[in-house]
Amino acid sequence: MASLLELKEIFRNADAVCFDVDSTVIREEGIDELAKFCGVGDAVAEMTRRAMGGTVTFKAALTARLGLIRPSYEQVQKLISDNPPQLTPGIRELVNRLHQRGVQVFLVSGGFQSIVEHVALQLNIPTANVFANRLKFYFNGEYAGFDETQPTAESGGKGKVITHLKEQFHFKNIVMIGDGATDMEACPPADCFIGFGGNVIRKQVKEKAKWYITHFDELLKELEER
Predict the structure, then answer these.
(1) 22, 32, 183, 191: which one is catalytic?
(2) DSSP letter string over the chain?
(3) Does residue 153 form part of some domain?
(4) In which residue ranges of the chain is pLDDT below 70?
(5) Lowest CB count within 10 Å: 36, 68, 82, 158, which one?
(6) Nearest alpha carbon to residue 191 among 25, 19, 16
(7) Is 15 a catalytic residue?
(8) Per the domain annotation, does 163 fall within a domain?
(9) Would 181 be classed as within a structural domain?
(10) Total tally of structural domains belonging to the chain
């Protein structure tokens, strides 16, 4: 197992960094915000807590939560326009710095493609670098389920995305940064996992992550030291 010093060295030499989105790149949990917007906030927030703690499979939790919310296409678009996701302090500067260093930045999320792509645009991350779940709608805009073939729709999916990136781009050092159990599980195949607790602290992640931060400035400082 790599020591903290070795993990920091991997981060400084990373050729790709993958960020979780909900409660990491943005301050909120996208699915909880969508649930509140659709009037079923409390029930869905409880399901999210259980899912993030790793006690139920991700796909089962996602299916159950979306079954309660049943968001229409119009509701999703209205959520993005009326309550756009709030970027976590320091993330814009960190992503800019990584881009300046020639590091590829990816958003790997169990959230929804339409919301995550909105976040990517704010951070100058190409939409091709977004891996997230896709909602499906009928022709009249009513909810029709989600694309269960996406790797991010199931437990272990973020690891599958990282394996795919390594095979496609031959990255030597990929770093995964996130707040939840699904992010920690992605290392390996990620070469380094950094736990993030700037928006919410997940006890399991804080206890098990060798490198745990609460502000993105900590990572900016690591990059400046070189």
Answers:
(1) 22
(2) ---HHHHHHHHHT-SEEEE-IIIIIBSS-HHHHHHHHTT-HHHHHHHHHHHHTTSS-HHHHHHHHHHHH---HHHHHHHHHHSPPPBPTTHHHHHHHHHHTT-EEEEEEEEEHHHHHHHHHHTT--GGGEEEE-EEE-TTS-EEEE-TTSGGGSTTHHHHHHHHHHHHH--S-EEEEESSHHHHTTTTTSSEEEEE-SS---HHHHHH-SSEES-THHHHHHHHT-
(3) yes
(4) 1-2, 48-55, 225-226
(5) 82
(6) 16
(7) no
(8) yes
(9) yes
(10) 1
pTM, rounded to two decimals: 0.86
The verdict on whether 22 is a catalytic residue reads yes
CATH of the domain at 192: 3.40.50.1000
15, 20, 32, 147: which one is catalytic?
A: 20
- In tens, the pLDDT along 13-57 reads 889 899 999 889 998 888 888 898 988 888 887 776 666 565 677
